[in-house]
Write the structure tokens for this entry.
Amino acid sequence: MAETVAILGLGTMGGGMAANLLKAGFPLAVYNRTAAKAQPLAELGARLAKTPAEAVTGAKLVISMLADDAASRSVWLGENGALAAAEKGAILIESSTVSPAWVMELAGRAAAHGAEFLDAPVTGSRMQAEAGQLCFLVGGSEAALAAATPVLKAMSKEIIPLGPVGSGAKLKLINNFLCAVQIASLAEGLTWIERSGLDIDKALAFLKSGAPGSPLLAAISARMAAQSYAVNFQLRLMAKDIRYAENEAASCDVELGTAMAARRLFEDAIEKGYGDKDMSAVIEPLRNR
């Protein structure tokens, strides 16, 4: 019988990840701060836990998918936190996009508790999580990753081992920094196209197939053009990721000037009320100026 898994956090990403583990036959316990979000998973067979500690009881592998450092710290170390209740020898996996500094602190606390630890943030958004097509960027020991691989495979198309703990968190922030800058420049470029008199469809078709083209540009430009902002990746979380990226880069004596410019656009969109929309909504304050 497959070993029991616990997932902490059932937001845009965690819900899809949990559903794929259930489809793969893993006994699953789930915890979410808003309990109602967990109910559909209970109908699929998951055990609903009232606290993080209750969720990890008996679990051999624990995955957290949370918003930021503060949420992760609260779930792992707060009242009725997961770490103190985790099984000795369990594999603890932080899949949230969090700072490398917090990852290293959590890894140290996990080791002191007698647990294995991997940092394994993901690339992909809601659709990839639901389809089991995420990519895990993994930092940690080869032995821990080998033991966790059957569980990670049930949620992903690719698992990339990167080296020691913290490697996953670092590369994820670089990835999201590059995405944020492209999205910000696209928002400005599309606003320019809309005001220039150009045929929008023809202009975007050219850009998507030309040198600036990328899967990200194709997906985000479609949402911007349609003003369709159902959440695939929440705008306020991208602003958070940019801040984490700037701080981490600064620790390597790198100043992310383009990140600063992108962050201003995302923070302006948050101030204008778009923080809980999809990140593609960053264009709206530009349109309305």
In short: The chain has a mean pLDDT of 97. The beta strands are 5-8, 28-31, 47-48, 61-64, 91-94, 116-119, 122-123, 134-139, 156-163. The CA atoms of residues 174 and 204 lie 26 Å apart. The chain has two domains: 5-163, 170-287.
